Amino acid sequence: MAERDSYAGDFQPHEAPVEGDDDRRRRRWPIVVALLLLLLLLCSVLTIVTTYFGRGPEQVASVVRNLECLQCHSELIPELRASTVHDPFELMSCTVCHTPHAQEIETTVWAETSVNLRRTTTLLRWLPVSWLFSLIEGDTEVIDGIRSVIVSRDVTTEVGPAELVAPLEELCWTCHGGIGHQLGFDYGHLPFKEGRCVDCHDPHASEYRGLLAMSPRVLCVSCHPSLGPQMAREHRHAPVENFFCTDCHHPHASEWAGILLLRQRELCFSCHPSVAWLAGKAVQHHPFEYDSCTGCHEPHGSDFEQLLITAEPRVCYECHADIETDFERVSIHPVYSSMLDCSGCHDPHAADYEALLAAQNNEICYQCHAREIRASYDSSDHARLLCIRCHTPHGSDFKPILREANPDLCLRCHAWVESHSNQHPVRPTYYDVRSDEPLTCTSTCHGPHGTEFPMMVRFYGWPFDGRCLQCHSTVGIDF
C-alpha cells in the first residue's frame, strides 16, 4: 500500500482546460484575422501604387508572361522595370533567341504549396512585399540573391549549356534584317560589321533608347578613348562636348568615310548655314568644294579658334608652301602679328572674286589702307593702276613689298626719264639728305600714291622751286 500510495502521490493527472482560457483564445482569433486582412489590404494598396505609378501595367504583364523562365532567372526581373525592353524578352519569347537549356527532373517540395504558389512567390519577389518572406516561419536560404523560405528541397533541374539559336553575328538579322543592307556600305562600324551587336546594345532591357548598354554620353568613349584628349582642348565641337556622337556619325555603317551621316560638306552645312550659302559663290576653296572640311578644321576639338588644325597662317601653309616662302622675305604683310591674317584678305571657303579675295581690285587694299591712301590715289595719275602693279600681296625683297627695287620699278613705265641726258640722278648710289636714305623717285620728290601738286611731287607746285630746296638748301650743289 505504501508503494502504491507513493506512486499515486507522484502522479498528477492532466488538468481540465479552464473555461476562461478558451474564451480568451476565441476572442484572439478575430483580432488575428483582422490584422491579417489589414495586412493584406496594405499589401494590395502598396502593390497597386507601385505598379501603376512606378512600373506600369505593361511591366506587370511582362513579369506574368515570363514567369516560366524567371523562376530560374530571377536576376533578370529588375530589367523588366527598365524604360526600354527588348520585345522578345518582354513578350515571353525567350526561345526566339535562346535554346531551352534546362530539364526538370524532380520538383522542389514546398510545404503545403503547389507549383502555382511557387510561381506566385517568384512574382512576389518583384513586388514591394518581399519583406513578407521574413515573417514566415521555417528555414531560409538565399536563392539568386533573394532570401526565400524552403521547407524541403530535392534536386530540381538539370541545367545544360545556354546557347543561342543562331550564331551571334547572324542572330540579330532574323528580326532586324531591315538594316542588313548596311553591311554593304563602304564604311562600317567594326562591332556592326563583325556582328557584335551586344558590344553596344543590351539584349534584354536598358534605361537608354535603342537598348544601349550604357549612357550615350560614355558609350562611344568607352571604345574610343582618344576622344578624351581631344575633348580636353580649349575649343570643342558642340556635338562632341555634349556627347551627341550620332549627330555626325552613323552607329552602324555609312557610304562616307568616318561613318558620317552625310558627306562632310552637306553634314557641316546642316549646322552651319552661315557657311552653306557660300556654296553658290563663283570661286570656291578646294577643300570646301571637294568635301574636305577636316582638311582645315578638327572635327572634335582643337587648341585653336574655329577648330583649326593649327593657327593661321600655318594652317594655310599646309597646302600653300610657296606662299610661306614669300612671307620669309625682307618686306611682308604682317601676317605673323595680330594686325592681319590670311583670312583678312581671302575668304577661307568661297568668294565672288579670283584668289578668294574678299573684294575686287584696289577695294581689297582699301579695306585697311583707305584712310591714308584712297583719297589721294584715286585722284592721282596712278589711279588707273592696280595696287598689285607695284606691290606684291605677300612678301618681297624690296620695301615696301615692292615688286622691284626703286627706281627700276618706276622706270618700267617712266623710261623716258633716263632717255634725257640731263636728268636728276635716281639711284641708290646717290644719297637723299632730306629723307636720310638712298635717293629714289619716292624718297623725297614724288608721292607714289598721289599728292595735291602736279606730277605727284611732294612739296610745292610747279614752277616754284621750293621742292628743290628741300634738299638743295645751300648754294654750289651740283651733279
Explain the overall architecture.
The structure is a single chain. The chain contains 20 helices and 16 strands. It has 479 residues and is α+β, with helices and mostly antiparallel strands. Among the domains are: 44-159, no CATH class; 214-302, no CATH class. A two-stranded antiparallel sheet has the order 1-7. It has a two-stranded antiparallel sheet with strand order 2-5. A two-stranded antiparallel sheet has the order 3-4. The protein starts with a helix and ends in a 10-residue tail after the last helix. Residues 1-14, 107-114 and 128-156 have low confidence and may be disordered.
Unreliable sequence segments: 1-14, 107-114, 128-156
**Count of runs of 4 or more consecutive helical residues:** 20
Strand order of the largest sheet: 1-7
The global form is: elongated
Largest sheet: 2 strands, antiparallel
Give the helix/strand class: alpha+beta
